[in-house]
Structure formats: C-alpha cells, structure tokens
Amino acid sequence: MKKLQQGFTLIELMIVVAIIGILAAIAIPAYQDYTQRAQIGEAFTIVSAAKTAIAEYAQTNGVYPPAADITALALDIASPAGQYVDTVAVTADSGVIVATMKATGVGADIASQSVTLTPPPVLAGLAGTAFVWTCTSTALQKYLPKSCTGT
Q1: What is the C-alpha to C-alpha distance for residues 43 and 146, in angstroms, rounded to an integer?
Q2: Position 74 pLDDT exceeds 70
Q3: With a threshold of 0.85, does the pTM exceed it?
Q4: pLDDT tens digit string along 93-113?
Q5: Is 3 exposed, middle or buried (0-12, 13-18, 19+ CB in 10 A)?
Q6: How many CA atoms are closer than 13 Å to the CA of 69, on its beta-carbon side?
C-alpha cells in the first residue's frame, strides 16, 4: 500500500518563510514612512487656526499682526496640543509660522525638523484673490503633503 503524504515538506515551509520575510522587508519601511507622514501632518493641522487668524487680520488691516496682536488673536502657539509637534512660533510683522517637531517620540527622519509657512510678502492687490501660503520644510519631501515644496 502506498503511504499518503500528510503535512508539508521542509522545502514548502522554507518557501513560505522566505516569502513572508520578503514581504516584511518591503512592508516595514513603507509603514515607517506612512507613520512619519502622519506625524508631520499634525503640524499642518495645529497651525491651521494660526493661518486663518493671520490671513484674516492681514486682509482686514492691510498689515501682518505685530507681537501684541498675535497674543490678542488667542492663538494657542505657546504650547500646541499636539503629540508630535514641539513648538509653534509666529513671527510678528511678517506672519511667518514655524512648527518644529519633537526630538523624541517621532520618526527618526522627522525628529526636530521644522515646517515653515510664509504668507504672501505683499498684501497690496490681494483683494478678491486667494491668500496663498508658501510652505518649506527641513524634512524630506516624501514626508510632506504635495502642497508643501520642502527645502
């Protein structure tokens, strides 16, 4: 009588382990990039209120807010409520916003990196047109949204 094969052979098991290893080697770096993109995305969420307040002030008054008015705008920039963003700073009289990521607790490639949002340099003639922010960053472009040009 012929004996029926039961279970898997060693070579079949080795092939399965090799396939899982190859998939893991591709998936882990892709997942790390994905998580770092999500972490730096928090900076754009946190500064959105400041962007709106500065744009409204500039369009209403024709100038960017001075230091006294930045505080009066009630922007929570001294201690952002973010898990990954360390500081947010608004420059008086120019409206430039800089969000800096934490040094620890974030992905290694974005630790201590910053995102800088710069409003239009000239306010004259903006009536009826879009208020467009320029985005630059010290982080690699692959971690930034498409709207941010990086360095």
Answers
A1: 15
A2: no
A3: no
A4: 898 999 999 999 999 999 999
A5: exposed
A6: 14
Placement of tokens 């992905």 in the chain: 107
* CA distance linking residue 104 with residue 53, whole number of Å: 30
Q: Residue 141 corresponds to which tokens in the numbers above?
A: 């472009």
User: CA-to-CA distance for 79 and 46, rounded, in angstroms?
Assistant: 11
Q: Which helix (H) or strand (E) holds 19?
A: helix 10-46
Residue 90's CB is within 10 A of a number of other CB atoms, namely 23
Q: How far apart are the C-alpha atoms of 112 and 24, rounded to whole Å?
A: 28
* Alpha-carbon span 70 to 10, nearest angstrom: 69
Instruction: Say how far apart CA 8 and CA 137 lie, in whole Å.
Output: 53
Q: Copy the structure tokens of residue 12.
A: 């079949």
Question: Where are the strands (E) in the chain, listed by range?
Answer: 85-90, 97-101, 114-118, 134-137
